[in-house]
Amino acid sequence: MTDPTTALLLRRLHTAGLSDVVAVEPATGGLAATAGLAHRGDGTSMFAKTFDEPSPGDAFAAEAEGLTVLRAAGVATPGIILADRDLLVLSVLRPRPATEAFWERCAHAFARLHTTTRHSRFGWHRDNWLGRRRQVNTWNDDGFEFFAQHRLLRWLDEPRVMEALGPSDRAALERLCDRLPELLPVRPACLTHGDLWALNVMAAPDGRPALIDPAVSYTWAEVDLPTCGRRHRRPRRTCSSTCTPS
Predict the structure, then answer these.
(1) 49, 33 in Cβ contact below 8 A?
(2) Mind listing the pLDDT tens digit for each residue in 113-158?
(3) How distant, in Å, are the alpha carbons of 129, 133, 199, 213, 226 from that of 195?
(4) pTM of the prediction?
(5) Residue-averaged pLDDT of the chain
(6) What span, in angstroms and rounded, lies between the C-alpha atoms of 183 and 111?
(7) Which of 3, 33, 165, 189 could be a cystine partner for 169, CB 3.0 to 4.6 Å?
């Protein structure tokens, strides 16, 4: 029986003009997209991903833009082969090594990113996406207001959040947002990956830490810290040892 993931990706690759793709090896474990390693007739491979359902707006274009901006700022990212409404095709990265030296190198890369991309405002020129959910990036001069409105309170109307949080929880979050200027120091905005966790860190062909799946914006550097590191406890996804996870 034909694997539906393989069939969907192969069909969309051919529709996009990549007719030399002869086979697709599915990658499992993606949280939002359907992904796989696309093998071309000349023996080379590409990483491709799509959505089973209609794509949420310009998700792949926004992701490709984020990869391009991070690369311009000195961070390794996969090369962009194609990005349209239904498909994102990237060059292949390597699995990250599980070594202290690699994570130290990753930390230095983020320190450079966060200290060399200061911006006078918080936000981005467009909204982008966390999986299939929109990340609101409306410009704001006030970092506390931006973080409260667009990184915390913005999620209160999402169905799963409404189900999980009762009135007292919502009120507590709103009180916390009101107190952010008392609890946190004033600091500048800088370019951030925006959706950083251990599985969005891979390795470039030359061994440098490389990032995937960004949701970039100018905001506090700390948004890139909480789940980045070798001690991350989420289970590893399984996929081809040469593919880029989605």
Answers:
(1) yes
(2) 999 999 999 999 999 999 889 999 999 999 999 999 999 999 999 9
(3) 9, 12, 10, 7, 10
(4) 0.88
(5) 89
(6) 23
(7) 165
